[in-house]
Every structure is written in structure tokens, then in C-alpha cells.
Amino acid sequence: MKIHSLLLGVLLSSPVYAADYAGLGAESVSKETLEAFRPKPLEPALSRRIQSMLDISSPSAGLLSPDATRLYFNWRVTGVSQVWRLDGPQRFPVQMTGGEDATQIAGMSPDGQTLVIQRDRKGEENPGLYLQPAAGGALKEIQHIAGVQTRFAFVSDDNQYVYYSANDKQKDSYTIYRYHIASGTKQVVLDQPGLWNIADQRHGRILLEKTITNLAAEYYELNNGELKPLFGQNEKEEYQAAYGAGADELIVQTSKFGNFRRLYQWKAGQFKAISPEINWDVSSFDLDKSRRHISYSVNEAGYIRSFALDASNLQPIKLPAFKDADHVMISGHSPDGRFSLISVETAKSPRLSYRYEWATGKLQQWQQAMSPEVDTQRFARATLETYPARDGTPIPMFVRRPAQCATVTCPVVVHFHGGPEGQTKAGFSPVAQLYVDAGFIFAEPNVRGSDGYGKAWLAMDDGPKRLQVVSDIEDASRYIRAKWGKGGQVPKVGIIGGSYGGYSTLAGMTMFAGAYDAGVSTVGISNFMSFLQNTAPYRRALRIAEYGDPVKDRDALIQLSPINHIDKLIAPLMLIQGVSDPRVPVGEAVQMYDAAKKRNVPAELMLFADEGHGAAKRENRVYSIGHTIRFLEAYLK
Q: Domain tally for the chain?
């Protein structure tokens, strides 16, 4: 019998819950509810352990100034992301922005005199754009409108205009603007319905991406006011593109012609492969502004490897090797293509960035990671393992184990990633180490529907097909209970995750009740019907393409909604939610908590009034991690 038939049989005897909330954000929940479920204080010793791990700080790679003598980057060392500057390799960092709101560097003018800054409020994901002198100083607002996403694209070659897109005219559509820096005025560049984004620009020509689904896109060129379709129209294929070295050449990343993403040269309507044919995805690519080098990354089973091509002849360029590196990434090119940043991460060291000179091969470390009071060399390395789904499919899974678990049975925490098109990768993870230090085996599956394993794997959970593979959630626990015990003792198993991982947690606790002994869901979907009705308009169409249409696929969405299986919930459940979340409305957590309490199972709810889709501020991250560990220790040990 097929899995979806089994679920339907169960559902027919279960109540179907209608949404008992409307809207999203702070206005959709009462002040009394916010006060009742605000975070409670943590036990000091636990808080201290988490604080120490969060003190391990690794800045983003960032952007080099045009002359490559300065580096601008994002860093959370103050507790929330802000913009910083280095005036030379391993110099003392200068803080450029401050305050309580997450702030990032979005771009820089070609002359290096002006920074473009992006700032959000309370995790609403409605960022504004600002200008700041490259030497530091006050921010000048370009646009920051409540409820509007304003997204940076580029600064014109003459340093006069900032190009950006915003959904200020329609919530589910983006208009393209240009902002005149000197006068502070804006002008519409393109005002057509659609989820438009500027992918690249060159010599007055603008390459436009029109997003169709969360992955698929169409590409157009805007030249002297004329919009010309290039490729992707009516295809629903995945494309990422940028201008190449040739006058009429594009470099395109796509999986259209095989199961895995490759790089192609597009010219005169024809695609020519320029990266090797391998059974791993090209996960990203980039070019410097002068179009001298093409750098690209390959995702090898959750390990990132980087490669490069000469943009003029498409021949491979040898790159330096890094011993024991889990991930190597190239970014932050100087406009003349002379320098780039190479970021390196290992299992026992946070990301370090080096300035790389292409002509000489010279590497110079610029940033310095910090790990006060923590010896990261003791961190558990993630091993790549698999477990069998019930149909025999091997499911990849990264596992970190405490040393003592080699001889005794340890409780297990299974963490499911978000997306659902996300992927858990290897590398450095202080948060994972917190669970290891607490005595848990920490397992992170990449179930069917995850990115990084080809488009066939990625599409296995699209729409109603999710009914066929959602049991991967339960099968992880089945395997762990059968294989990871010692001396005949079966381990207790908990489940956690955020966003779609939060949904996976709720599904594991309800649809597959008994598989897990406790669960913590962060910003998880409890009811697909109410979620699709109330999520932000700009996301609704993209999420329907992934999860299913609420009309055509109504039966499947009802079957897949954890709240419709609440009558099976038997194990303790905790829910964590940001009130300003535009993706998963706060009502998803509140309605699930209310339903769980009616079942008389141990249930907790924690609401962050000043957060969105997950905790970004340091204090709230401590609460989120700390209460999750506290809850799991109470019920798994």
C-alpha cells in the first residue's frame, strides 16, 4: 500500500482543523499572548555554556575596496549583524554600523567612496537601503518602508545611481528603480507584474531575472528601455546567469540538460557546457566586474569545493589547496579582477578569509576568527553516514558523536534542515557542538527533497509527492533505535528543526507519533492551508509551487498538516516562534500549542516579540538554543 493511502486512512478518522487565526506579524496576536509566552530565564550554567559558544565569531567574507586595500564585511560580534571594516590584513577592525537591527553591507560604488547598506527591523524581512561614506559616518536612507522589501542590485559605473527593486506598488510584484544619489530622487526603470530581480549589468545593459517558482526563473535583457526575452520563458527550469567576457555571452548555471547543475556558456541562443560533467551540483558561480575570472563551487555530498576558469578562453585555472578544508569558497572580487577573497572552513576552525592575487598565487590572511575560552580542536567532526528509507533508498546524514557514546547508549537529537530545498553540510558548528557537549549524538539527515543531490532528488517532495517521502522523517528514528543502542539498550530520540525543519518536527511528533520521545519546532508550519492563506504575498506563489495548490492539492495538504494528526500526539512538544515572521505566521505556532494543550501532553510555547523567521539577536539565540537543550535534557535523559 502506498504511503499516502495509509495517511489518508488515518486522516479520515481524525478531525480536520481549520485555521483559527488570520494575518501575520504582531497585529495577529494579542499583547496578553505575547506576555504569557515571552522567554523565561535560563539556568545560569547553561546560559554561560551557550554564551561561550556564541562568542566564537567568524566574520563574513565581505567586499574588497576597488584598490583592494580595505575589506568591508558583516560580523555578529556585538550580538547582531553589523558592518565592519579592515584597513589592511589582520588590522584592528573598525565598526561601521550599530544599533539593535540586523545590518549588512549590500554593495559599494565603483569609485569605492560610498557603501550601500541594508538594514532590517525586528526580523520582518522588509529591509531598507541606505548610503554610508566608505570612511564611516551617518547613514542616508534611500528607501525603507514598513511592509516593503527593498533589494539592492548595483551602483552604476558613473557612481551616480543605485539600482534596486521593491514590492512597494504590489505586495506580490517587484518594480525596478534607480535612485539618483546626488538629488535623492528615484525613477521607475521597469514596472511590469512579476517577481523581478536584477541579476547583472554591463555597459548599460541590464540582465533581469523573473522568478517563477522558488527555483525556476526566466531571463530577460533590458536595453534602452526595450525588454527582450532570452531564455526560460514558459519552461519552469532553474537558471542563474551573469554576463560573460564576450559581448553577447552569458554564463549560466542550470540543471536543464541533466540531473545535476552545470555551468554553460550561452551565446546566440545556444548552451555550451564549460564545467565538467560530474554527479554533483555546481552550487554557485561568480565573475569579477572586469570579467577576467569565473569562479564556481561544487557541492560534493555536503562539502564545498571551488574551481576557476579564465573567462576569456574558459580554460581551468589552478587554485591553492587547503589541507583538511570542509569548505572552500571564492567571493569578494576586486573590480579589476586582480584580487579575490578565498574563505576556508574546517570541522575544527571557523571560516577564515584570505586575499588571493590571481597572477602571483599569493595568499594573505586578512581576517582572524576568535574562540575565547573554547578549544575548538576538541569539536566532534561530522561523519557522513546513511540510513535506509522503508523503500530501501539510502538517506545521507551527517552525525557528530560524543566520545563516550562509543561504549554507552546515548540519547540522540535528530535535526532536520529548513527549505525544504535546504541541505545540511559538513563544517564548523558551535551550535551542534553544544548538543554534543550535553551528551547527545547529533544527527542531521538530508531527506528526499533536499538540495545538493541532483534535481531528481530535489523534486521528490514537490506538491502531493511529499506524501510518498515524508516517512523519511520516521525512518531516521527507526534506524537509530535499531542500530545505535549499546548492550541491548535502545536510545531515546528527540527531533528538532527550524522552518521546514520545524514542520518536519511537528510531522514526526504527530503523523509518526511514537517515533520520537520529544520535539522542539522552531517557526514550523502546523497547517499548510492556514500557512498558505496567511504567509506574505510575495512568498505565497513560490511556496504553492513547492508545497502544492490549496485548491488542486487540497486533500494532500490536509493530509500533510501536522495539526490534523494532533489526536496522535503523545510526547512532549515545544514550539518557538518569532512574532514578526513574514514566512511562517506566528499563528501557526499558537494554534499548534493550543491543540497540544488540549491533548494534555507536556507542551511549551516561546514567542519572541522582536524577531522574525528565527532568532537573530544574541540574547534571543541564547534563549532559543538554551530552552531547546533544557527541554530535551528533561525528556531524553
A: 2
